[in-house]
Amino acid sequence: MSTLTTHTGDSPATTGAGAERGGFVPAYAARPAPGPIPFARLLKVELRKMFDTRSGLWLMASIGILAALASAAVVLWAPDDQVTYETFAAAVGFPMAVLLPVIAVLAVTSEWSQRNGLTTFTLVPHRGRVVAAKAVGALLVAVGGMLVAAAVGVLGNLVGSALNGTDAIWDVSVSDFAAIVLANVLGVFLGFMLGAVLRSSPAALVGYLVISFVLVPLTMALAAAQEWFADIQPWVDWNFTQGRLFEGLPTDGEYWAQLGVTTTVWLLLPLAGGLWRLVRAEVK
Fold first, then answer.
1. Is-above-0.85 flag for pTM?
2. Cβ neighbours for 208, distance < 8 A, ≥ 6 positions apart
């Protein structure tokens, strides 16, 4: 019959509440619980996850390659009177507007389609903090991508003007650039919303392509054929109201009300439902 020996003295095994009860306290019981992972570290990890996968790396590379090709196309084939900063900004901004939402989609769906969530949500059980880090990371990528587009546009405008022997024309104001950034941020959060709602990379990507490239011509045709839809289109068609931002920063209050209504219906409400399901869904 073994005998349990109670330690004495100042050993950590006998100090504290357990010692007061006269019982044996294992040494590991005195170790302090680790603190929560800082949000800055979560954000750093989520940003790295957007770039260090093969798909994320090639997406970023394709954005840079397409931006360079678009600038070269403007320099080579655009008429002299169209070699302006607005032309370069539009040419460079288009591939970013298309591909940046894809990065947001993959940032969310990778936790499910690639089963990364088994590790992520084990290390950070509070899923809301992980999702918040992904959202902030998507916002930073969107703004950073547009700053890169602006820099490439500046370089292209300078090179194109020098080759053509004309003065560089800077026809994009700060407010216009801010409107373009806002439009792209909304586009990125469309991808983020689809990722949260569908939690499947193929399904979310198909949904993004349908909303961005199939619904647009359909709603334009409907507005051209039906006057009643043309009247309500700014209040129900998110693509229509978001697309107006690429034309400059609107100053009328009615437009901002329309953007608020369509963004709430198309983005915020589905995103709230998707996040509610995401934090409760089982990771398989």
1. no
2. 101, 102, 105, 190, 191, 194
